[in-house]
Amino acid sequence: MQATTSQSDFVASLLDPAAAAPAGVTTMRGSPDAARFDVYRNNVMVSLIGALEQKFPVCRQIVGEEFFRDMARLFVRQTKPSSPLIFLYGDDFPTFIDGFEPARPVPYLGDAARLEVAWMRAYHAADGTPLDIAAIAAIGPETLAASRIVLHPSASLLRSRWPVGSIWEAHQHKPVAKIGRSGAETVLVVRPGAEVNVHIPPPSDRAFAEALFAGATLGDAAQAGSLDGDFDFGRALVGLASLGIISGLQPASESDN
Amino acid sequence: MLRKSALPARAGLGLKPTHYADIMSGEPDVGFFEVHAENYMGDGGPPHRYLEAISAIYPISLHGVGLSIGAEGPLDKAHLARLKALIGRYRPASFSEHLAWSTHDSAFLNDLLPLPYTPATLDRIVGHVDEVQQVLGQRMLLENPSTYVLFEESTIDEIDFLAAVAERTGCGLLLDVNNVMVSSVNHRLDPVRYIDRFPVELVGEIHLAGYDEAVDGAGDRLLIDAHASAVLDDVFALYDHTLSRSGPVATLIEWDNNVPDFATLFAEARRAEAVMAGHAAGNTLKVA
What we know:
The structure holds two protein chains of two kinds. Chain A is mostly helical. Chain A has helices at 7-15, 34-55, 57-63, 65-78, 93-98, 109-124, 133-137, 141-146, 164-170, 206-213, 218-225, 233-243, 252-255, and strands at 25-26, 148-151, 156-160, 185-190, 197-199, 246-250. Chain A folds into two domains: 1-106, no CATH class; 127-257, no CATH class. Chain A is built from 13 helices and six strands. Chain A has a three-stranded antiparallel β-sheet with strand order 3-4-5, sandwiched between helices. In chain A, strands 2-6 form a two-stranded antiparallel ribbon. In chain A, helix 3 (57-63) packs antiparallel against helix 6 (109-124). Chain A starts with 6 loop residues before the first helix and ends with a helix. Chain B has helices at residues 20-26, 46-55, 77-90, 119-136, 158-169, 177-186, 191-197, 233-246, 262-287; strands spanning 11-14, 32-36, 60-63, 94-98, 101-104, 107-113, 141-143, 150-151, 172-176, 203-209, 211-215, 221-225, 251-254. Chain B has an eight-stranded parallel barrel with strand order 1-2-3-4-7-9-10-13, surrounded by four helices. In chain B, strands 5-6 form a two-stranded antiparallel ribbon. Chain B has a two-stranded antiparallel sheet with strand order 11-12. In chain B, strand 5 and strand 6 (107-113) form a beta hairpin. Chain B is globular, with a radius of gyration of 18 Å. The model of chain B is unreliable at 283-288 (pLDDT under 50).
């Protein structure tokens, strides 16, 4: 009797390395062959691990190719892409890494992966023209204080307990450069033009940048920033604008009613 | 003869991000570039920036790898809409997809999985191809798969299946000569006979690629469609035979893994065009 093979059966076998080939799958010899069905299993696994390898090159360098592949394999077993847009795959890999016991000796690995997710997001984000600094200078102080920034579509901010921006930067060099910092870092990722940039704003600008990314008005963000004695509102705002993180300013009248 | 493709009868190459700069600065004499549609479905950034520039110089073939036309479930409407937007933006000379499936219960498996060939699966594929062509507003090419297993329930030969889909939907076919070699060796069929039976008049594009070789549990040769090396001699010979039936057809060199430098890829395109040149005169005579 000829068995029919549903795609549910096929997938169930495909995703369970211990399972036999699904009923109804055969060869020209008229009998199933595990090595042949394994080609599909292997294709799925290798291609998805490959997608993670491409998206997380710094994490790969940090833990080494073999460790990375083993870790990626376990992630692939439990998480399949939910979209054929494969560059979106692995956005939740950082959370997996946080809970991955063997990676504990590298406690910053999850944040390094978050930075690489932000990098890929910036790479594929919508294009946008950064706000001209001269346009900011033309706005009166009261209007400016009540405004919120419109983030560039590619911009994101990552707060880390670790010097994750410095770690990322060090791995852009061969051999890996010395990491000059320790302690927490806030990192900005943005692609104002063709290139994705990773910036580490000075500690005095951190609270200000974080408040702006959280949606605060410039006035409120300045207040948050001023808790640091070295904070300078003009310098910090021009600094962020020159990175291309700001697409526009939203006056209070539009955002607050 | 009805034009099956607006792609020129020349060799084309897959467009790879590592070669963007080489292509823009050198403007190499390549017949067309083919892109995997899904890599250009982000909102912006370098992929679109380069494709804008390259599509202004070269004909573009849009090749989908994620539509899952062979799936038991319905087609992904959002994905079709993304394809339509890409086609509207870049006006590719051709759109092609596979006789395979890759999505199940919303999980995307990132591989081209096989399906049995039966009257029921034929109806399903016809419905899906009809829907694709209706939404996209253009004719598509459907590609023959490389397969490693067979299905007990299959009752229709692969070529008859593809020909029936083309006849019922009006779609064209993409003939992957490497896939013919891989599947023929894997299922102990004669690749030359496959080509001789193939409806070459429906072929709008040919694919060539390198395969890997293994053995299965019974010790039989098992070819794997790897796209990770140069086209092998037996596939080039089969390509030569294909062209003796079809005449020159737009031909893509598929080299997607372990991508070499641009010069190596370009040399592969030249090799294909040399084979094509040997069939150009004969084709002209036939038409006359």
